[in-house]
Amino acid sequence: MDISVILVSFNTIEMTKKALDDLFASDGNFEKEVFVIDNASRDNSAEVLRRDYPNITLIENKQNVGFGRANNQALPLIHSKYVLLLNTDAFVKPDTIKKTMQYMEAHPKCGMVGVKLLGRDGVLQPSCRYFPTPWNIFLERTNLKKLFKHTKLVDDMAWDHASVRSCDWVPGCYALIRKEVIDQVGLFDPRYFLYYEEVDHCFAAKRAGWDVVYFPDAPVVHIGGESAKLESAISSKSRQIESLQIESELLYFRKNHGLIGVFAHLLLNSLADFILFLKDFIKFRAPATIFFNLKRALFVWKTFFRTRLATQPTR
Prior knowledge:
The chain is α/β, with parallel strands linked by helices. The protein has two domains: 3-129 and 167-231, Spore Coat Polysaccharide Biosynthesis Protein SpsA, Chain A, CATH 3.90.550.10; 242-306. It contains eleven helices and nine strands. It has helices at residues 13-24, 45-52, 67-72, 96-106, 134-142, 179-185, 197-207, 226-231, 242-282, 287-290, 292-306, and strands at residues 3-9, 32-39, 57-61, 82-86, 90-91, 110-118, 165-166, 174-178, 211-222. Strands 1, 2, 3, 4, 5, 6, 7, 8 and 9 form a nine-stranded mixed beta sheet that branches. α1 (13-24) links the parallel β1 (3-9) and β2 (32-39). α5 crosses α9 (242-282) and α9 packs antiparallel against α11. The radius of gyration is 20 Å and the shape is globular. It starts with a strand and ends in a 9-residue tail after the last helix.
């Protein structure tokens, strides 16, 4: 088998069907197998997938085990050269897989390829990203990035995204990975229930000597946030479930930057919340708005202790 495609489904059956239909319409002389892991959807996803897509391997979970853990479930069944992680709200074009595989074939040091991501309206989404640090997260949250223009922010959008480019990490909604990389460093750390699993994986791949590359010539339409908004309240800015994002962020910094790194993140995060509190206070915002960031800072510290100093997940 040339390529194994993994999709994780959670209450997005209509989008899952479109993602699969576009996937099976792909051009190219390669053999593919498709795995769908359904995370206990409540919209009859499993029933529809069993009926309408007999050529896929369907894994049905009795409970939502999270994004990374669900992807990992397909690994024992995979023996292909490449593994494609594809979100159910990400839609490939007929030549997307062919082009990205051709790039990988021509560049043996490339361990992972991401693509240009476009919203349903054609607007460019962050597709070629730098690793998060306590400092660049602080600058982004406080908007002090304007004073530190040479700092590499997680999302650098100030270029045309029209050329192949090495980067720190690519989003997991379309990530083509060399199976050799997975054999060497694994896929996703099961401690991440949602968010940061692909950042952590790219960090491990680059540390092992592999290149992570942004490839613009095979754009993918990505909706984003569809499963999250059905599960919990999401941030209007990032479309993420904030409590899970906070937890995963802490786990990431402790794992990859140690106790000093996670403490630096905690302190700068608290400083950012205090600065935002002062801004809202000075502008005479509503009380709920003024105290939101102080409550957030308290929640972050509580999560730090609930996760045993950012070493264990809460779910």
